Amino acid sequence: MKSRPRARDLGLAIGALPPGPLNALTDVPGVRVGHVTLIAGDGPLVPGVGPIRTGVTAIRPHPGDVFREKVAACVHRLNGFGEVTNSEQVREMGVIETPILLTGTQNVPRVADAVLDWAFARDPEMGVTTWGPSPTVAECSDQYLSDVRGRHVRAEQVIAAIEGASSGPVAEGGVGGGTGMSCCEFKGGIGTSSRVVPAEAGGFTVGALVMSNFGRREHLVIDGVPVGRELQDWNPPLSQVPPERLGSSIIIVLATDAPLDPRQLERLSVRAGAGLARTGGLYSTSSGDFVIAFSTTNRIPHVPEAPVLAYRQMAESLLAGQNWPAAPAINHLFQAVIEATEEAILNSLFAAETMVGRDGHVRHALPIDETLGVLRRYGRDVRGPA
Fold first, then answer.
1. Over the stretch 294-335, which tens digit does the pLDDT of each residue have?
2. Could you give the C-alpha distances from 63 to 31, 69, 107, 163, in angstroms and in order?
3. Exposed/middle/buried for 232, CB within 10 Å: 0-12, 13-18, 19+?
4. What is the domain extent for residue 81?
């Protein structure tokens, strides 16, 4: 079966900065992504048993030992109706020391426990001569499509996602942690994108990966076009059942090879909210909207060799010889975050396929033909089906 197109495949070039070779989080050197998808059973919900539409996504900031060689990081709260485990420690210490895991809400404790199993198996000194790691696990609710009482993600699946994480293209849509997610009343899930800033700003790469589970159809905006409003009355053929108005969260993961400290990563994370807003996100009252950001360049050894460490840091003021109103180089990173986040969300929609879950609940895929028709009426030069 032919896979569904990404936004850029259809001529939607979001923003102005160029994407990296894969247009994915993995364009940032060293970053790896892995998924395990769990789909089983059909029909009425049997609490604790199924049907199952869930999974887990693992993001490794670099291929080495993240506990022994931590990365500068931050967790930013856009809206707090949700969970990122150990976020207070990340804010306090400014580092992440495990792979980042994305999953369904009720899976979080088991996923965090599995990360500890994985880490302890790799390092016999953890909890003996040094402290143990603090897992970073983020969630959105997949309750509309999946049995959540069963908490079906087990340790073996978490470990498989971590160990199977790769640096190549990233699967999108209803995969991994995004398996049971919804976006703007369509099928959502995992999406990713990247941007490369100009050479005069360092030539750095910014990547975004989202787990989209937010929004109302009428609020969906694609490349500035009110597509959701135009499709407000769309129903799939032979269907008169309107979609349930559930799903209101997003996790955004940002990675960059720019040498940023935690405060600067926080500044980037704030701009991710602008990318979410461009697609119609409202940070609604029951929405868990979080940004997890890290730099692969500034690494912090678990056991430093000296009391003072030296790191490079991105400049935030004008460069020598520049006069106002020239833009500081970090502004290019802000732009990259906004554009990559926006396109990652759109890719999560375009890539996702229709899914039937518990109790016959359906999340239909974004209708490509109808969406392209709306975009053309608004003057967008898109390609694909008529």
1. 999 989 999 888 898 888 888 887 776 677 656 788 999 999
2. 7, 10, 25, 10
3. middle
4. 22-234+246-375
Which is more confidently placed, 329 or 29? 29
> Using CA atoms, how far apart are residues 287 and 279, in angstroms rounded to an integer?
15
Predicted model pTM: 0.96
Distance CA 212, CA 191 (A): 8
Answer whether residue 382 is part of any domain: no
Indicate the residue type of 212. S
Q: Which helix (H) or strand (E) holds 267?
A: helix 262-278
CB atoms within 10 A of CB 157: 24
Q: Among 74-83, 250-259, 304-313, whose mean pLDDT is lowest?
A: 304-313
Q: What whole-number distance in Å separates Cα of residue 268 and Cα of residue 265? A: 5
- Residues with active-site annotation: 249, 287, 289
Tell me which H or E stretch contains 59.
strand 52-60
For residue 12, tell me if it sits in a domain: no
Does the CA dihedral 61-62-66-70 come out positive or negative? Answer: negative
Domain with 150 in it: what CATH number?
A: 3.60.70.12
How many domains would you assign to the chain? 1
| Cα–Cα nearest to 260, from 209, 291, 298 | 298
